[in-house]
Every structure is written in C-alpha cells, then in structure tokens.
Specification:
Blueprint: E1 7-15, H1 22-39, E2 45-52, H2 56-64, H3 69-87, E3 94-97, H4 101-116, E4 120-130, E5 135-136, E6 143-144, E7 153-154, E8 163-172, H5 178-187, E9 192-193, H6 195-206, E10 212-213, E11 215-216, E12 224-225, E13 228-233, H7 235-240, H8 242-245, H9 256-264, E14 269-273, H10 277-290, E15 299-302, E16 305-307, E17 310-311, H11 322-329, H12 331-341, E18 348-349, H13 352-382, H14 394-415, H15 419-440, H16 442-445, H17 451-475, H18 480-489, H19 492-496
Parallel strand pairs: 1-2, 1-14, 2-3, 9-15, 14-15, 16-18
Antiparallel strand pairs: 4-5, 4-8, 6-7, 8-10, 11-13, 12-13, 16-17
The structure holds 5'-O-[(L-methionyl)-sulphamoyl]adenosine.
5'-O-[(L-methionyl)-sulphamoyl]adenosine is lined by residues 12-15, 23-24, 26-27, 52, 239-240, 242, 272-273, 275-276, 304-305, 311-313.
C-alpha cells in the first residue's frame, strides 16, 4: 500500500429502473458529509458513487417502456441520477456505470481469474428469485401473499410474488468461505457496523453458506461470461465489483490503474442500506478472498426511510423525489435534517412538519439569526470592520472551552458515522453563543462611550464573529452552501483562504478571524420558508 492511501468511501450503485427518491439520496448525502469531513481533516479522499445498469429489473423496465436497456440506462443516468447529485450538492470524485468498458472488461478478467483458481464450476439451479431484489431467495425468507397474491410466495421487501428460476449456470464456491469469514469478523469486529448489522451477519454465516449461481442464461442484458458467452454474469456479482473496478482492479503493474488501486484499495467504508448488507458482508468479501484481494475495512449498514412504517419505495408509490424537498428547504437543510433527525444505522420517518419545525428552530432562528445579528452589530457599531478584542473574561473563556469540547466531540462522532451527535454538538455550541449574546447585551454596552465599555463591546463582537468562523468550518461538510455564504459574510477568505481548506480539527483555535475583516450582512443564510408545499 502506498503511503498516501486515500480514505476511500463508496455508496451502493443505484438501479436505473427508476429515478431516485430520498432514500437513495440519504445514502449519498451521508457519504458526502463523511468524505467532506475527511477532506477537511486534510486527508486525501476518494468518493465513488454510480449506477447499476444490468439485470432483469432494468431490462424489463426498458422493455415496458419500449426501449433498449442501454438507451434506457443512458436516459435515466442523464436525466435523473447525475442531476440528483447536484440537487443534493454531492461532491463525488467519480461516477461509475456498470455498462462502461472500464467496468465490464475488469469484471470479465476477475471472473476468469476465479475460474482459473477453481472457484467457479457449472451446476444447475432451481429456486425462487425476486427480480425487485435481483436475489435468489431461500424458501424460509418468503412470506405468504395476501389479496391479489394470495396462495403465492412473496418477497418480504417488495411484497410481490417471487419467480422460479431453473437454469444451468456457473456457480461460485461461496460455501468454502463461511468459516474464514466468521474468523475474519471475529478478528475485525469493526468490519461490519453498527453492532446490529454485525450480529445479523454473524448469525447468517453460522447457518452455513450455499454456493451461489453467478450467471444467467435466459436473458442477455449483462456482461457475457468470458468462457461461455451464452450466459451473462449475475447482476450482483457484476455490481459488487464496481467498487474495485472503478479504481483499477487487477490492472498491470506500472499502469495508471494499478497506481490508483494501490492508493485507494481497500475501501475504508462501503455505505449500504440494511437490505443489501448480506451481499456486501458475505458475498463480496468471499469474492475478494477467492481472488486474494484485500477486504474492505468496513461495511456500514444504515436504516431505511420509512413511510407508514414501511421502506419508502418507488414501486410502492411512496417515493418522494429529493427535489420536492430541496426546492422548498434548500440542499443544506435537506442534508442537515436527514443526518440529524435520524440516528444513522436506525430507521426513521420523514414529515414536512418535523422538517419545517427543525428548519425554523435550528437553522433560521438558531444559526441564521446569530449570523445576521452579528453582522448587523458589527455594521452598526464598527462600520462593518471586525474590531480587535480585549482580554477574555470568564464568559469568553467558557465559550472557548466549550468550543474545544465541541470540536473534539464532533470530530470523534463524525468519524464514527454518528452524524446526529456530531451535528448536535455544533448546534449546542451555537445555542451557547446565542445565549452569550443575550447575556452580554452588547447593545447595552454600546450605550457607554468610555474606553472600557468600547473595549468590552469589541471583545463581545469579535468573539461572536470568531465563534461563527469555527461553526462555518465544522458545518461546511454538512451545509456547504450556507457556510460558504457565512464565510463570505465574515470576510474570512481574505485572511484565511478557502473555507474548504480549513481543518476541522484546528477549528477550536481561538481568535483566528483576522481583526479588520470586512463583515457584511448579505442574504439571510436560511430564508423564511414560503407557504407549505403541496406534499
Ligand atoms: N443496485 C443495488 C446495489 C448494488 S451495490 C453493489 C441496489 N440498488 S437500489 O437502487 O435498489 O438501492 C440502493 C441503495 O438505496 C441501497 O443501499 C438501499 O438500501 C437504499 N435505499 C433504497 N430505499 C431506501 C429507503 N427507503 N431508505 C433508505 N435507503 C434506501 O440495491
């Protein structure tokens, strides 16, 4: 491994059978906040997302729309999956599509390698398959159908009948990896998180693994099996490999791909929803072990956004498009809300009322109001020029101590993917600064013109602005746009440079914002909301 190995984070690659809903955006936002945070610790970072374009699900949707799957995928990527990254303000470094040659060629090479190593053999498969999950199911996984599906066995995720697959396919010797995987996870308990996900994977592994059919012969929308073009690679076997093909898996020594791979692999975090945990924590590491490639450091399974107690989904017509929320609240509020309101790793629900309430309380009245009050006072009392502070009193020392604690807490929490705790620590600091303003009553201090009062006023105004400087740095990964606006209102770029270049772990330093910075009032960071949207 090269010495400047990047922090490498991936999201799942999304099926292009439909446009994204906020459940998909949720994973990408979490990945974006975490990678921006690592970047602001001056680490080198690689953030990958992309689309999963093969398989029956996409093929059937394309057919139902009277088009070829490739054309359908192109259309959905261009019109929906790439634009949503802008909508939610994601700063990914790469976007992989599984129909790209850089992927398909490396998948074929990988498959051949496993075949040569004796891990792939021909066999026949008969059993239930859910096209919605693109997954071979075990009879015990299924539920009895109700209503129009009475008498049929249904997928518990999609509540639709499964199909029976009966084919001669190529099989991967997954069963050979059960014990080594158990050992691996015993030795690396942080490799599957949170704990509930770890427990689920361990108990699944202990029931024993069956070999996995990794090709399909009854349709052709997939990557041809290199030694048997009458079959295409099973969509999950193809899809999981994206994490490694995107960074040059198995490229020849000395090539650009090989260098990239050395600088990124193994992935530090694969972010996944809990529904796709087993693919990532069982099949994927077994594939890598078979090819003698290093295993990812952590698979982190987050919960679901629920509607009426069920996973939000387009197929159940409960999907909300990210733009519906972002158009109303803005991308910053979207990112803030979902990561603060739902404990990462657990399920959560979204409601307009809850989001409106938090927007108003935390953002408009909390941070937004503090920033505008600060700018207004520096404008009124100091002509918009940040004054030099005098000596700290107990009140400032208290804030500085709290800031040190806040940075420590937020940094540790975000690195553990406890976004809610990280964001909350900063919110509490903002509350404390608002309280400081209320208690110090700078508007009263400003009434006396003696030197002591003027010095005191300057200390208070400086302290508020410098606290806002620290908040801008810590919140930048969460709310890139509003904090950039705040940075500009603080006139901070002139003396401190780009906001994104400020280190989060140094943000507790005191009296950093240069005296003399030009403070402007500008636009409100979080404008009052228009009337309620039609939900
Ligand atoms: N294509 C596969 C992943 C392959 S990764 C090698 C897939 N795609 S998906 O589009 O169906 O889902 C992608 C991600 O979105 C999953 O992590 C899934 O958990 C997440 N979500 C889909 N609906 C969701 C919610 N309602 N709530 C939270 N996340 C959800 O699976």
């Amino acid at each position: 491994m090269s010495s400047d190995k990047a922090f490498y984070l991936t999201t799942p690659i999304y099926y292009v059978n439909d446009a994204p809903h906020i459940g998909h955006a949720y994973t990408t936002v979490a990945g974006d906040v975490l990678t921006r945070w690592h970047r602001q610790r001056s680490e080198s970072v690689w953030f990958l997302t992309g689309t999963d374009e093969h398989g029956q699900k996409v093929m059937r949707t394309a057919q139902a729309n009277g088009t070829h799957p490739q054309e359908w995928a192109d259309r959905l990527v261009e019109s929906a999956w790439l634009p949503v990254l802008d909508t939610i303000d994601a700063a990914n470094d790469d976007f992989i599509r599984t129909t790209q040659p850089r992927h398909t060629e490396r998948v074929q090479r990988f498959l051949q390698r496993l075949k040569d190593a004796g891990d792939i053999y021909e066999g026949s498969y008969e059993g239930p398959y859910c096209v919605g999950c693109e997954e071979f199911k075990l009879p015990g996984d299924l539920l009895d159908g109700e209503g129009e599906f009475a008498g049929q066995k249904c997928c518990p995720v999609h509540s639709k009948p499964v199909e029976t697959v009966s084919e001669t396919n190529w099989f991967f010797r997954l069963s050979a990896y059960g014990d080594v995987l158990i050992k691996h996870y015993e030795d690396n308990p942080g490799a599957v998180r949170p704990q509930s996900a770890y427990n689920e994977v361990m108990s699944f592994l202990k029931t024993g693994l069956q070999d996995l059919s990794i090709s399909r012969s009854t349709f052709d929308w997939g990557i041809p099996v290199p030694w048997d073009p009458s079959q295409v690679v099973y969509v999950w076997f193809d899809a999981l490999l994206n994490y490694a093909t995107a960074v040059g898996l198995d490229d020849p020594a000395g090539s650009e791909g090989a260098e990239k791979f050395a600088n990124t692999w193994p992935a530090d975090v694969h972010l996944v929803g809990k529904d796709i945990l087993r693919f990532h924590a069982v099949i994927w590491p077994a594939m890598l072990m078979a090819a003698e490639v290093a295993l990812p450091k952590c698979v982190y399974a987050h919960g679901w956004l629920l509607v009426g107690g069920e996973k939000m989904s387009k197929s159940k017509l409960t999907g909300i498009a990210p733009s519906q929320i972002v158009d109303h609240f803005g991308s910053d509020a979207f990112r803030y809300y979902f990561l603060k309101a739902i404990q990462f790793g657990q399920d959560g629900s979204f409601s307009w009322e809850d989001m409106s309430a938090r927007y108003t309380a935390d953002l408009a009245n909390g941070l937004g109001n503090l920033a505008s009050r600060s700018a207004a006072m520096v404008g009124k009392y100091c002509d918009g020029i940040l004054p030099a502070p005098g000596d700290d009193t107990e009140a400032e020392t208290h804030l500085h101590d709290l800031l040190k604690k806040t940075v420590e807490t937020a940094d540790a929490a975000v690195l553990e993917l406890d976004f809610a705790a990280g964001i909350n620590a900063v919110k509490e600091f903002i509350d404390a600064v608002n309280l400081y303003v209320t208690n110090q009553e700078p508007w009263k201090v400003a009434k006396s013109e003696d030197a002591e009062s003027v010095a005191r006023l300057h200390t208070i105004l400086y302290t508020i602005a410098d606290c806002l400087r620290a908040v801008a740095v810590m919140y930048h990964p969460v709310m890139p746009k509003a904090t950039a606006e705040l940075w500009s209102q603080l006139g901070a770029a002139a003396g401190l440079g780009d906001l994104a270049a400020q280190k989060v772990q140094d943000s507790a330093e005191w009296r950093v914002l240069p005296v003399g910075s030009i403070i402007t009032k500008g636009e409100g960071l979080f404008p009052r909301l228009a009337e309620e949207p039609v939900a």
